[in-house]
């Protein structure tokens, strides 16, 4: 003789309090994820790495611009030096042919002035060459850091993008779950829930003992009795202190 098949037990439909608590849990997690997405420490890491790259690039450009300026100074000094040497050579040649002392003195004075200007020009060129050499060494060292700086930006960007993708995926799941819960909750409760959530952030709280878990204030014995009477049909009333939907 075979045993009679046991009757299947259908799972109980969730109650309005259960649905409201589930909706609040979904919205709380979504709020937390939204805040985490906007204020993630990884954004600070990316901003820091980007700022370092910007500073690195600014220094590279400034160094390159100064080296170009020095190259122009050196080129100009060399060109002027050639002109001065040619001019001095002409004066020295002319000096060999003059007879009048006054004219010779004038030529010698002009040659002395050219020599003085030439010395000053040589000093300018030497200083430019020394600074250019120093900057070349600094730029070479600076350029060796390029890969480290750009890699830091890339890694920070990748880490942030991965976190945002993960958060967005979970937010999409929560959005779908919220839509499912909204469809199962009577419209009047949804309207009340949304209004209280907009005003209070957290719209639903449970009554544990005599304490509302939303405002953490204890209800008087009379308030507890009233809450139980009001929630007799649906399991939901309002907290007399904070106004949240109170699950009794």
The H-and-E topology, N to C, reads as HHHHHEEHEE
Please name the CATH architecture of the largest domain.
Answer: Orthogonal Bundle
Choose one word for the global shape: rod-shaped
The CATH topology of the largest domain corresponds to Helix Hairpins
Q: Structural class per helix/strand content?
A: mainly alpha
Number of domains: 2
Compute the CA-based radius of gyration.
42 Å
Summarize the amount of helix as a percent range. over 70%
**Total number of helices:** 6
Specify the biggest β-sheet: 4 strands, mixed
Give me the side-by-side strand order of the main sheet.
2-1-4-3
- Regarding CATH, which class of the largest domain? Mainly Alpha
Strand content: 5-15%
Q: In angstroms, what separates the terminal alpha carbons?
A: 49 Å
Please mark out the parts with pLDDT under 50 across 5 or more consecutive residues, or reply none.
none
| Arithmetic mean pLDDT | 94
Number of strands: 4
